[in-house]
Amino acid sequence: MRVRVRGHPPSSSRDRHPRVAGRRRPPASSGSVREAIRRIWLEEPPWLVRDGVVALIIGLLLLVSQLWFDVAQIHRQETLENARSEHAEQLENLRFVRERSSPRRLGRPFQEFNLHGQNLIGLQLAGADFTGSNLGDASLTLSNLRGADFSSADLSYARVNLADLRNAQFGEADLRGAAVNSVLRHAHLRDADLSRANLLSADFTDAFLVDANLTEANLAESVLVRADLSGADLTGADLTKVDLTGAKLTGATLFDICYSDATKWPKGVRVPDTSSHCTDVAHID
Questions:
Q1: Is the CA virtual torsion 5, 6, 8, 9 positive or negative?
Q2: What is the pTM of this model?
């Protein structure tokens, strides 16, 4: 006979290991998740992201280089086009000027012409109007420019040798470094810049050079009889064998000038007794 013993039923495996209160794993916090993501993407990014960033940087560098090259190419092209356009303008202006070269009295309106570096040798251009024109480095040797107007014109480093410039107007003109070995009788050169100009043997008889800049100009053997040099700056100028008879030098600066025994001074100028070349100062009474 079987005897059934009353008691507790056999315990299952779950019952054999009962849960202990308070030992459940807490869910991960949002801060730790963000920290994990940051570590993965920044400290050890996936190869796809890493290579993608490198490729993006290289692409941007190539794009910038291409843009820089394109801009430089455009700038060079514009420079060439501007040079061609300027040269074409100069040639057209030169043609226009030469067409009006004549002993006859013609209208010669050459205001603000660009004739830089052009050949104007031997032209008949009496009374021409070159106001504000660019004649820098141009050659006007042997030209008839009597009564021409060069007011405010650029004649820097121009060659104007053996030209007829009687009664010409050079008010506020730029003649720096120019070679002007010509006849400038009664010429008007107020406020003109003749610094370092070569004026060897030029004839400035009765010329108006008030407030002109003649610093370091070569005036050797030139004629300045009755010329008005009031307020002119002749600092460092070469006045060797210059004829200044009757010239006005009121307020003129004659510091560090060069002169010789053959230099003829106007009355009122007291020069040193010695015949040394390059004095410090010539005194004006």
A1: positive
A2: 0.70
